Amino acid sequence: xxxxxxxxxxxxxxxxxxxxxxxxxxxxxxxxxxxxxxxxxxxxxxxxxxxxxxxxxxxxxxxxxxxxxxxxxxxxxxxxxxxxxxxxxxxxxxxxxxxxxxxxxxxxxxxxxxxxxxxxxxxxxxxxxxxxxxxxxxxxxxxxxxxxxxxxxxxxxxxxxxxxxxxxxxxxxxxxxxxxxxxxxxxxxxxxxxxxxxxxxxxxxxxxxxxxxxxxxxxxxxxxxxxxxxxxxxxxxxxxxxxxxxxxxxxxxxxxxxxxxxxxxxxxxxxxxxxxxxxxxxxxxxxxxxxxxxxxxxxxxxxxxxxxxxxxxxxxxxxxxxxxxxxxxxxxxxxxxxxxxxxxxxxxxxxxxxxxxxxxxxxxxxxxxxxxx
Length: 373
Hints:
Number of strands: 2
Radius of gyration: 22 Å
């Protein structure tokens, strides 16, 4: 390709708002996918659990039957996870309306073809379909026909080709992590907790990563520990700077708010990372804390208390993914509840505060380093 063609291609991509970058695909699209998954599969799971455990009639009632399968309100929300993820990805990529609406079909087909690794398949396929749909959008006088046809055909074609192997690979890697955690709960407890906790604070989606890998069981419990270490840890660590507003926004929202401060002084991250390295193996080796709710909860931490709701859901009503991995419903005992409370709230708060106090005294963390903008 000569320089004039290269310039022409760059101009075309710019005009079409097609930005090929790690940020656009690895941060914007991945984060949006997690939101789509949250608003469908996770919310559906929560509604079903509330309905079942508290006997809420309208949440347990069958509202529709599709192919002889009855669905509740929560069941319908979960059923639409593929379209929700695809549309969310398209929205993040700033797709025009005709492309965005066409991604509903693409997301459903891809999630079904991807099996256990459906979310990862949807991420790749929705990006391909959305970008090619954007490329042809408004390029013809019959845009209302061309754009949806191209988006749907490209999306379903890509799904048919790559969704099954992507899904299989993601599922196999997730299985490897979970089996290794069962065999080496201490070392994997440290590794999973630290890495997922870091992913939660970075501008990527730990929830999407855990969902893609299908992390349940002990590995899911370690992931929850790492997320809580960062969220509750930063909330307590920065309390003197950010007071109650910061406590709530980080503790129930996201520790990602600290990323600008971490860039300025990476040492402020050490208390949370060290905390996650302790709470992870405690979760796996001492409390045997398992996340058997939907895998997305493994990467949520205390965000809206979804991590804790996921663990409770897994106790009373394990997700399909957890059941396929050998989980079973249990009646939680005192040790289970103690582990959940200590790993989620108490230990992250105490340990991160203690580490932070030490680093403040040696000058690695200074006054104002943790102030939220």
